[in-house]
Amino acid sequence: TYTQINESYWRLFEQGRISQSELAVRRFADLYSTLHFEGDAYKANLCYRRCLAEGNQMMPEALSVCQTLSESYTLCLVSNGIAQVQNKRLSGSPITQYLSSVFVSESVGSQKPQKEYFDYVLAQLNIVSSQAFIIGDSLSSDIRGAKNASIDSCWFNPKGNSNPFDDLTPTYEISRLSELYSILL
């Protein structure tokens, strides 16, 4: 139930229809309402964010793929996450040694899939869209954002989900991160 509610709020955020602070609290208020539970949604969000910040589990092959790709490419992280949570999660991750920059929407001032988000990232990196490549697991934020900014994209789809968007086709689709080698190297 939480996952469905949370995903619906992230979609609203991606569409620019709510703020990140609204998303953070309203998802728990809706969860409590749906489950007929009495609770403080604000406090639940704070607790959730604290716990979420402690986790930094990597996808299989992520570390070795980042290590290999960093020898030929500048790697950056682009995220719609909450800056405090993302920064804490990354602080304990060995992957950060391969990242040149981290762009979190809360700090950027716009979010994926907005073109302005990607324009900001490209300007900070001093590159044009044809020099960038987005790898992401979210069609609605990563791949749509890449499309909005005219950037080639790769949908990381380890579960083999079908694409529900008729107007959105990533440049590439992979189910394992190591498949990036055949695309990029």
Number of strands: 5
Largest sheet: 3 strands, parallel
Rg from alpha-carbon coordinates: 17 Å
- How does the overall form come out from the CA principal axes? globular
Q: Strand order, main sheet: write it out.
A: 3-4-5
Secondary-structure element string? HHHHEHEHHEHEEH
Proportion of strand residues: 5-15%
Which class best fits the helix and strand makeup? alpha/beta
End-to-end CA span? 41 Å
Low-confidence stretches: none
Helix content: 40-55%
Residue-averaged pLDDT, rounded?
93
Discrete helix count? 9
Oligomer designation: single chain
What key phrases describe this protein's structure?
single chain; 185 residues; alpha/beta; 9 helices; 12% strand; globular
Give an overview in words.
The chain is 48% helix and 12% strand. With 185 residues, the chain is an alpha/beta fold. β3 (133-136), α8 and β4 form a beta-alpha-beta unit. α1 packs antiparallel against α2 and α2 crosses α3 (41-54). The longest helix has 15 residues, at 20-34. The N and C termini lie far apart (41 Å). 25% of the residues are buried. The mean pLDDT is 93.
